[in-house]
Amino acid sequence: MKIEQLHQLFLECQSACTDTRKIKIDDMFFALKGDNFNGNTYAEQAIQNGAKYCIVDETEFNTSTQTILVNDVLETLQALATFHRIFLNIPIIALTGSNGKTTTKELINAVLSQKYITTATVGNLNNHIGVPLTLLSMTKNTEIGIVEMGANHQKEIEFLCSIAKPDYGYITNFGKAHLEGFGSVEGVIKGKTELYNFLIENNKTIFVNGNDVIQMEKSKHANTFSFGNNANFNIKIEFIEAQPNVKVRYNNLIIESHLIGEYNFNNIAAAVCIGHYFKVEDSSIKTAIEAYIPNNNRSQVLTKGSNKIILDAYNANPTSMQAALLNFEKLNDTNKIAFLGDMFELGQDAEVEHQNIINLIENLNFQAVLIGENFNKTTINSNKVSIFKNFDAFKNEFDTSKLTNHTLLIKGSRGMAMERILEML
To answer: What does the UniProt entry say about where the protein is found (predicted)?
Structure first.
């Protein structure tokens, strides 16, 4: 079946789905394969659950008028997403970077939603499957699409751009993330700037943080719209303070966010800049950012009993960990403890990067509890640091009943699931 014909069938459906447990009536089910599953075997169940059509790539499962046999389900999903994106012909903003992608995406979506009907990546569905699903979630009513792109190897962003064909792009930053796949920070920069390369080659527009030297250098041959804290850029956005939450000044407006940490300034500024570019009213930009409440373990501020908790446990890498710790140091609170879990996907740099975090902590003014095999291999020279080999050891040996009237930072890579500490308080 040609992609044009498949797209006509897709337009009869409510949405695309790859999980029979989440199917809605009249969805199109894509029978993807993984290391431990074969979606083809769920085709019949998908139909029973309400799917209008099922896309399969094994002949034995092409058993009804509702199943459609293709050569490769994943490739078909990606090709259909690109066809649908071209069919809709709406502005697509692509977003990548080492840290802050999802928060920035949510802020941009909040701002643009003040004026437009937007569709944005849900959660962090930002890979070779998530990006197509995001594109296919866009409808004829969508006026602007916002697509988050993640990567841990070279050429991944390039491939995602070939699917989404963005008109605009923004890179949050370049940091020590996914070093195992990228090889080095230089590899990270090369991989992330694949977004810039696509936009430059296609004469599209890049949003640039004018305070970021790397962004300025890598986008110098592009159509750009920049923001920064002085008048040299298209739009001036100034950082005011980060205590207790980040405040910025824009066009004589003071915007008071619910986000903690000076590192969130650029995330807010990018949303302001993009809102300004798309002619969202200043007052609406302020309203959107001030109404945004962080969630899903990202920069959340919680209270449990007498303790204040900064829950930033969705993920971690050396760059984001350092930023979180330096922000934690600046808090005026007393009785501060940082609970940190291992950082993953660092490859041969894992040992030195975890030791760097230890060295940083030993020069800061708070206690730290470190959990994980990587931290367990480090050397400590201070009694302000405690280390547990894994979470079970921590749970069995650490007495959380002593934590009263404390301010706690909780951060670690996703695989560490550091939010489990909340259950112990």
So the answer is: Cytoplasm
181 pLDDT more than 80: no
pLDDT in tens, 106-123: 999 999 999 999 999 998
CATH of 90-291, one of 3.40.1190.10, 1.20.120.140, 3.40.50.720, 3.90.550.10: 3.40.1190.10
Instruction: DSSP for 241-280, please give it.
Output: E-SSS-EEEETTEEEE-S--SGGGHHHHHHHHHHHHHTT-
The Cα-based distances of 171 to 102, 146, 190, 193 in angstroms read: 12, 13, 12, 8
Q: Which CATH number fits domain 3-70: 3.40.50.720, 3.40.50.2000, 3.10.290.10, 3.40.1390.10?
A: 3.40.1390.10
Cα maximum dimension of the chain: 69
Evaluate if residue 243 carries a pLDDT over 90. no
Question: Domain ranges in the chain?
Answer: 3-70, 90-291, 300-424
DSSP 8-state assignment for residue 51? -
Tell me the binding residues for ATP: 97-103
DSSP 107-144: HHHHHHTTTS-EEE--TT--STTHHHHHHHT--TT--E
Using the 8-state DSSP alphabet, how is residue 341 labeled? E
We find that the CATH architecture of domain 300-424 is Alpha-Beta Complex (3.90)
- Binding-site entries: 97-103
- Note whether 3-70 and 300-424 share their fold: no
Query: Residue 180: what pLDDT?
Result: 77
Tokens 């934690």 sit on residue: 328
pTM to 2 decimals? 0.90
Rounded to 5°, the CA angle 259-265-271 comes to: 90
Q: What single DSSP character describes residue 155? A: T
Dihedral over Cα of 103, 106, 108, 110: its sign? negative
CA 43, 46, 48, 54 torsion: positive or negative?
negative
